[in-house]
Amino acid sequence: MISLNDKVVIITGAGGGLGKVYALEFAKRGAKVIVNDLGGSLNGSGNSNKAADLVVNEIIKNGGKAVANYDNLVTNPEGILKTALDNYGTVDILINNAGILKDSSFKNMNENQFIDVLNVHLNGAFKLTKLCWSIFKEKKFGRIIMTASPAGLYGNFGQTNYSCAKLALVGFGETLAKEGYKYNIKTNIISLLAKSRMTEKVLPSHILDKLSPEKIAPLVLFLSSNECPSNGSIYEVAAGLFAQIKWQRSNGLYLNPSDDNLTPELILENFNQIFNFNGKGTDYPIMLKDYNKVWEITSKLPKVKAKLPNLKSIKDK
Ligand code: NAI
User: Fold this and answer.
1) 166 counts as catalytic
2) Ligand 1 mutation target, pool 21, 35, 37, most atoms within 8 A of CB
3) Which is the catalytic residue, given 127, 166, 186, 195?
4) Burial 175-200 (b: 16+ CB within 10 A, else e)
5) CB 286: neighbour CB atoms within 10 A?
6) Which of 12, 117, 146, 210 sits 20 to 30 Å CA-CA off 169?
7) Which residues have a Cβ under 8 Å from the Cβ of 17 and sit 6 or more positions away?
8) Which atom of ligand 1 is nearest to the CA of 166?
């Protein structure tokens, strides 16, 4: 049985949607939960204590431990940590979950829409993670979840702001995983799809019915536990699927690296080779390629000149 007994967990945006379900599930496993939510609308306007209060009341009614915090993650992350320290003396787990949407096609997106979304998802996560980091480091324990999105990994129409923020959280999490490793601070990234006010107007109801947020929570709890073996991984999770996402490098094109040999025409001529994901050189990199080894291979290759490329045949493909 995975226990989260007495672990102190901060969950941002836990007044509704996914965060609320996480809060209830953490509390069921004995965690002390800071339910942060400013109680705003989907686009971040307005505020109310009601959302966080309702979740805390439900947890307490069920015999769990929780305290509400209504601070805006962007303007007062210190207030969120203070609530954890004042009530429970420490923090063990941080679930960066709060988010807003300001969708618009790129043509119509203004700078405020872009910056506001980055502020909540990315800068907010940065600020609160930074505050928790020194505590995690000192106690040699910490678990951090970054909430990414398929929109960040694959792109999505009308969400340049959101997809930038979400993919940035992937890089943020992967780097923290490397920096936190020796302090037993483990950071993982989830890319999910679930029914909430974010999706209820864009997905049909027969699909939404299969996407309850309860199907995401088990992974979040597992990645937050003492037992978590994972660090710096990206998970895709929805409707009962729990999968890992990796970057894939193609077989690649190897050319003699002399400056007078490398031409755009050679790349054009060999473009299919760059795209070849079936060869034996295809791999799943976790770090930069070992460029000394690349040099050993490429520097021994003969110099070549591009034949005049058959532009028509390439265009036809
Ligand atoms: P939601 O809108 O129900 O929950 C987000 C919560 O964050 C709200 O309760 C809101 O009041 C709170 N919040 C917003 N700005 C805040 C701020 N500055 N400070 C404190 N709280 C703030 O949406 P949902 O779906 O539960 O989203 C949770 C996370 O999952 C978000 O990061 C979202 O981008 C992400 N996500 C959701 C997907 C889905 O299918 N529902 C898909 C991919 C990612």
Assistant:
1) yes
2) 37
3) 166
4) ebbeebeeeebbbbbbbbbbbbebee
5) 11
6) 210
7) 194, 196, 197, 198, 213
8) 34
Residue-level length of the chain: 317
State which CATH number among 1.10.10.10, 3.40.50.880, 3.40.50.720, 1.10.472.10 fits the domain covering 8-245: 3.40.50.720
Nearest to 11, CA basis, from 75, 87, 92, 86: 92
Residue with structure tokens 């597992």? 222
Express each pLDDT in 23-63 by its tens digit: 999 999 999 999 999 999 999 999 999 999 999 999 999 99
Tell whether the model's pLDDT for residue 314 goes beyond 60.
Answer: no
Element (H, E) at 238: strand 234-238
Tell me whether residue 307 is one of the annotated catalytic residues.
no
Q: Which of 34, 81, 97 has the most ligand 1 atoms within 8 A of CB, as the residue to mutate?
A: 97
Q: Which residues line ligand 1 (CB under 6 A)?
A: 12-13, 15-19, 36-40, 42, 44, 51, 72-74, 97-100, 120, 124, 147, 149, 192-194, 196-199
Look up residue 175 and give its two tokens: 């780097």
Summarize pLDDT for 65-120 with one digit per residue, the tens.
Answer: 999 999 999 999 999 999 999 999 999 999 999 999 999 999 999 999 999 999 99
- Tell me the domain boundaries of the chain: 8-245, 264-316
pLDDT-based confidence at residue 317 (cuts at 50, 70, 90)? very low
CA distances from 313 to 65, 185, 275, 302, 317 (A): 67, 52, 16, 26, 7
CA separation for the pair 198, 151 (Å, rounded): 13
